[in-house]
């Protein structure tokens, strides 16, 4: 008698599938998110608060000898990393009286010590500011000051950069420690001997008794639309949320994950490393991404999950073909910024790998995950998603760079298929913690009176669109930031540095597309001071001293005057479109020649060499 019923059920399921092709995937995804929500609620309510550190300690007691990190031929077990973090915490405690809540800046390379140093601090209830190891001088000082750290920890590789700012650090009473046995500079205190002599006994949880879901766990720096990098506050709640991404993407405890992204970013550190740590996953950590080592590493360590940014998968596709490239165990790739063309080629060459494209900004209170097989989409909208992350796509005026408002002063939702600004409602469940020490920048990310008078939204600054099937597609980033080599470049920061060159009067910085590259490369239109010529070497000196390589403008365009909008913003759109082809531009153009270490006139030969990739950018 159950036969006709189950037959009916099959037909219903079949019809559902026909009518709603993503029904089952949506359900599976929603169930997973629900499980995450329930777990988060449990952790939130537990007294004392069950933090990610406690989660790690549970993993340690389950399998102390399981490998946590493989790095440059050496394996570090869960137990070892735990003990090492106790030693670091104790050595630091002996040197400085760290109180729970004191922030400590980490200026470290992608090495295992990054992980246990952070863990040690977390065990003391101290938030860590994760400094980008590419930044120097003024930017570095700025980043330090916004998190209020009185202690800076660095490694031998970065000692020069610290020495450069040491006088200012001393003035500000910031103590500097280096993870090395000795140091010839008097004000940099070597810590390694002290760490190795310190006890590895567990630290009392009482040391972090005030930590809860709302306390700051780490500061992660993001390049905003204006000025220096901003310190996004990542709370323990956000840490939990982001570390669940692996789970949402289908990663399990038996997986082995390859982390080749910088640990000072949310993706490499929180999503990859901390996400792995909680579930007891083994991490293969790399100093930096290397296309030539990628698949050999994957084979050697039986890697099953890899992280990417759009550029890195493109680099893999650009490597010469090999016979054994399908021979690996990678089953999932998680990341963002992947283009459809690269995706297809990646699959063609390297086999059946599930790509999980995630849309999330470090400080944003919303995420989209591509959990279906839709090429090009960053994710899907569904009821649960709308409930967890109430959001809207609103009409945006690209020229004025502000949302379009109706006669009532409210924003207007875009129609299906139309590009709009993604804004996400700030709620208990999706809070926005803002930037440390920067009320003004925090305020700038807020949008009021969006759909109702008095409501409050987070402005992602990203333009996206969704189609009839509710797939969401990333379109562009609004305004003044562009991405190059996976890093955000804040145009006004670059402009500030350019105007430090004695010949430069004003600078308008923007990013231009280069065939065969993700993102946009830096270019600047400048005007010169009365009676000055463009000084190639001085300008080069300024940008190379003060900007990381990816932020230096590779092209300079000399203009008689800059164009401004009605609201006195520099006009960029036309310049972006005109690009850097000397055949089409009358203004004098220059190119940053990395071999000659100066700017040189951009000739048609150079232009051709760039197009044919003889010159690598
Ligand atoms: C990878 O897997 C193979 C076979 O499953 C095993 O023999 C080998 O020891 C593994 N390698 C590592 C580094 O775990
Ligand atoms: C989303 O994932 C599917 C397969 O998992 C893939 O085909 C598609 O290209 C992905 N979208 C993006 C933008 O990567």
Polypeptide structure, described:
The protein has 617 residues and is α/β, with parallel strands linked by helices. The model has no long low-confidence stretch (mean pLDDT 88). It is globular. Bound molecules: 2-acetamido-2-deoxy-beta-D-glucopyranose (2 copies). One 2-acetamido-2-deoxy-beta-D-glucopyranose is lined by residues 338, 343, 354-355, 357, 370, 373-378.
Largest sheet: 8 strands, mixed
What is the third-level CATH name, the topology of the largest domain? Rossmann fold
**Number of separate helices:** 20
How much of the sequence lies in strands comes to: 15-25%
Question: What does the oligomeric state look like here?
Answer: single chain
Task: Enumerate the spans where pLDDT stays under 50 for 5 or more consecutive residues.
Answer: none
Which CATH architecture of the largest domain is right?
Answer: 3-Layer(aba) Sandwich
Ligands bound, unique: 2-acetamido-2-deoxy-beta-D-glucopyranose
Overall geometry? globular
Distance between the termini: 70 Å
Question: How many beta strands in the DSSP annotation?
Answer: 30
Radius of gyration: 25 Å
Overall SS class = alpha/beta
What's the rounded overall pLDDT mean? 88
Spatial strand sequence of the major β-sheet: 2-1-11-10-12-13-14-15
Helix content: 25-40%
Report the CATH C-level class of the largest domain.
Alpha Beta
**In the residues, how many domains can be counted?**
5
Subcellular location: Cell membrane
Signal peptide: 1-21
GO biological process, one term: long-chain fatty acid import into cell
Pfam family, one: AMP-binding
